[in-house]
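Deviation from plan, reported transparently: fructose -6-phosphate complex.
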Amino acid sequence: MKVIIDSSKNIASRAADLYEEVLNRKPDAVLGFATGSTPLELYAELIARVQNKRISFQNVTTFNLDEYVGLEPTHNQSYRYFMDHNLFQSIDLDPAKVHIPSGLKIGQEELDAYEAAIAACGGIDMQLLGIGRNGHIGFNEPGTPFGALTHKVRLTESTIEANSRFFATKDEVPKEAVTMGIRTVMNARRLILIALGDSKAEIVAKTVNGPVTEEVPASVLQLHPDAYIFADEEAAKYL
Ligand code: F6R
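Because the crystal trials were delayed, the predicted structure below was used instead.
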């Protein structure tokens, strides 16, 4: 793992440099995106670089990590809505090349189809990840087998609690989600995990220096041949 400690502003710019490098090398790259607070500065930087004509997403295909079960794509807390509003609407991406798991059609057939779509595009070149305070990546909560592919999950109490900040009440937070599995994530040729803030410090230390264990899903990144972990000073304080 390549661990990089820097300010959140510099992390956004250094992570954007990795996108620029991939897109220069492969304009039709397959990119995996994440939602949450963490990638917002990076997305703003990617939008700025598209506007400055430094990069283009014209030929890019995207796959998102996850989606809540039961939310319409138009729901303002769905991950589809998040991506449209925080990135996709502001870059030159072809909407036909965007893939986000459906939170409404969640049968095994749809889950398998998501994996098949990734495979049909030749696999993911670079997957972006945030990290949950409990070490989840995507919505792969502690205890998820490392071999899991795209699947439906029950969210843990700690994740529901953490995500309730975006909903009017905790009761409104969906209890289930569809997520790429750990194996899906690990199959990506490059991983970029970003961790910001004090609340991530303990789990970042376990991820980087602890044992590789299904109890800390992000610890699996230690086994990936090309994984970057970007942490700000607060998130890196126990490293
Ligand atoms: C989001 C996702 C989650 C988040 C994680 C951190 O698509 O898969 O694993 O990355 O919960 O969320 P934030 O960035 O809001 O702290």
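The chain has one domain: 2-231. We consider this an acceptable substitute for the interim report.
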